[in-house]
Every structure is written in C-alpha cells, then in structure tokens.
Please model this.
Amino acid sequence: MDVQATTPLDPRVLDAMLPYLINYYGNPHSRTHAYGWESEAAMERARQQVASLIGADPREIIFTSGATESNNIAIKGVARFYRSRKKHLITTQTEHKCVLDSCRSLEAEGFQVTYLPVQKSGIIDLKELEAAIQPDTSLVSVMTVNNEIGVKQPIAEIGQICSSRKVYFHTDAAQAVGKIPLNVNDMKIDLMSISGHKIYGPKGVGAIYIRRRPRVRVEALQSGGGQERGMRSGTVPTPLVVGLGAACEVAQQEMEYDHKRISKLAERLIQNIMKSLPDVVMNGDPEHHYPGCINLSFAYVEGESLLMALKDVALSSGSACTSASLEPSYVLRAIGTDEDLAHSSIRFGIGRFTTEEEVDYTVEKCIQHVKRLREMSPLWEMVQDGIDLKSIKWTQH
Amino acid sequence: RSPRLPARELSAPARLYHKKVVDHYENPRNVGSLDKTSKNVGTGLVGAPACGDVMKLQIQVDEKGKIVDARFKTFGCGSAIASSSLATEWVKGKTVEEALTIKNTDIAKELCLPPVKLHCSRKEGMRNISLNSSMEVY
Model:
C-alpha cells in the first residue's frame, strides 16, 4: 500500500512493451532502415498517447528518464535560458526534493528563489503567490498533487494568475497524471513533469510537456546528438516510452472508474480506522485531496514502530527513523503538524490494483497494533492520567 | 528463521533488523508500570516527543539494594523499544551499583544495532540516563 513510491506494471503496459524488448530493438533515430523506422513509429505513437492524456500537442512532449529529470529541465532550463533578464523563481515548501534541490542549486548560481509557505490545509495562499511575483520572475513551480499528503493545489487558478502576469507556470504532476483530469490549455500550464512508474508504467522513463504556443524556451541540460528537438539528447528508449505511452492510454480509459473505486476504498479505510481509534489526525485538506494518498498521524505512537508492526503491509511514514536524518518530514512540518505527531504519521497508498481485502486487513492490523503500542507508550499513559503533555519539560540528550 | 526474513518483513529500506530486536519488539518483556508513589520505586523519564523518543523506566528495589522488578514504557522506533525491553531484563536481579555499570554500547552490541542507526545508539545513552535517574530518584 505504498503506491506513491511506485506502482506495479499494468499487464496491458507490459504487453505493449514486450515486442520492443525482443524483436523490435531498433534505434528510433536510425533513419536508414526498417528497424529504425518501426521504432520511430512506436515512439511517435507513444508521444501521441502521452499528449492526448493531458490535452497537449505531441510536439510538446519530450521523453526523459523520469520526473526528476523533467523537473530539473523545467526549473534549471527555464531559469538559465532567461537569466539575462529574469533572476527570480517561485516555488512552495512542500515540493518534491528534486524541485527544491534544483532551486537550491540555482540559488548557488545567483538566482533568487521564493519558497511559498502552505496553509494548515497544505494548500498555498493564492494572494501570497500574487504578492510574490516580481517583474523579474521567470517561473512559478507548484506540484499538482503532493506525494506525502495527497493534497491538490488549485492549479487552474495558479495558471490563470501566472498567465495574466506573464510568468511561466510549471507543475510537477507525477502523482496526478492519469489519476485526475488535466488539461494544459484549460489550466494554462506551460511545463509539466510526468513519471512513468507512478502510473503503472515502467521505471526509468518520464516526460516533460513544454508549451509551444506561446513558445517556452528551455536551455538543454544534456548535450549530445540533438534528439527530442535538442532539448534532451540521448537515444530515446523505445520499450520504455512505449510503456509510458501505453500507461497513459490505459490511464485515460480507467481514470473515472479508478477514481470512484479508490475513493470508496479510501473512505472505508479512514472511517474504519477513525471509528475504532481515538486521537487519529488526517494530514492535509480532506476536500482538495486525491483519495489514493492518505496520511494519518496516530498520536502517542511512533511511526516506525507501527510500520514494524504492520510488517506484511508495504507502507511509508513521515517519521524520522525511516529517513537518514533525525528530522521528520518537511511536508508535515510545512503544514504545521506538531513535531510529535509528525513522528507518528503513516502514509497509506491506494491504487488501481488495491483490493478491499487488503484495505480491511491493513485497517484491522493497524487498529490492533496502535492499541498495543499505545499500551506501551508513556505518553498515552500520561494522557490517560490527565496530564497535559505540552506542560512537561522534556529532557534533551 | 533465516536472517533475511526481518529485512523483507520490515518496510525500512536497506536495514536488517537483527532477530533479537524483532523478538524484543514483538514480545517485549516488562511492559507496564509500577506504583510510582511507593518508596521502593524509582522512576526515570527521558527524551522528548519532538525527537520521536520518550522512555519511562521504573525499578523496584528491596531493602538490600537489589532490583527486584523493572518496567518500561517507550514511545519510539523498534530499536528503542527493543533496547528498553533488554535494559529492564538486564537490571533485574542486580544491585543498583551493578546496574549502573551497564553501558549504552553493551545494549547496542547485544541487539546488534547496525552503525547506520547512529541516532538510535544515542538512545542507548538515554537508556542509561533513564536507568540512572530512576535509580537516583529511588
């Protein structure tokens, strides 16, 4: 139940990929023989499939190695191209690490970046965004759906603001593409990052959408033979992009049904947990929320110990012990979660292939182990005795 | 039980929980509370929820200075729980002076805590402080 981390290949995607892993192994850039031509045809078909999922023109889709590369291209590529006149970028505090890290590396190059805070709901304040835009702002980057708490940002409104202020708008849509309807023209998106392995496609492939009208110019990060309109040199991996294309086409067909089914399962999970356990908090706005990503904090129980208890379920936590540092998740910190609750959070991911039995099993085990761990918790004991934990002077070590 | 099983059972990446840690975590010894108002009981509470680690350790000592019972409660990760459980097991039957000689590194070694869990090994320091403070209180 960790679909935000990755998803299994949809069997239809595997079917589409296999011929290109076995017989049709040509390099799509070989212009002189049939191996090349058939690979190229497959690559262009895949390009059309990706484009049609987001309402774009196939000429606006560039294949990359994944959303991390796409984010790098979008942020560094746009910033560097316009650097003579524009030195400022805007992003949020809850973005994926690759976006934040790209911004940080640009700051080292002399750019200025504003990291917008988010409200308790996890959503940015549109007025703060408007106020942050300067005459020398080249790009605003806000992710569509957050990978830790599932919160949906008001993309169409942000697109409207950026378009009226003549600032390019990039969105990291890795967790949103194929799951919620997206249209780059309706939402006035100029650049978008897409990830293959988040939508039941293969790992190692993604795409970036770059608007042609009006044209967004991007300085290429990777030099080479000029493939992908010079924006991303390197042989395009035919089997992987065929997989990405197939995943997008399947997602377009399944989107409505998946969303309904996942919403019901999410509802089931949340209701059943909350009615059996007190002091459980859902992180992130429950309304502007993608149902398949549920982040819950179980007060007085530490996240990693709960994960250890739920050992036959694949889950993830915002607790420090599961990351290399002692810091709990920066996303939870950005939405103002108390530090002890941040250590107590678990992310449940529900996807296309998650079954009701799996949800029920997870809920049952979760309730059982939270109760057990609370019995072992000095904090729970103190709260039961009526002690206000905020009044205690904890020792440091 | 093969040593690889704990790694697959746990969602923590690239971290092999020694089966002793898993054992202490799944079957913790001495979870609970002693009467904190009793004169023979020493209680130590260390850590902070903001750090993701809080441990309460209680010991019951007889007139001769020997620890006859120990209980713990922990808010923390699997290693933290295992360390606390082991600490309570070790101090039982020892005198207070003997128990004070238990070092953080002894516990870490017994549970085979990997060096990658450096911050957790600091928790062994916490075990110690908790042990000591509970004995001081006593």
About this structure: Chain B touches chain A through 37 residues (CB under 8 Å). Chain B has a mean pLDDT of 72. DSSP finds six helices and three strands in chain B. The CA atoms of residues 2 and 97 of chain B lie 39 Å apart.
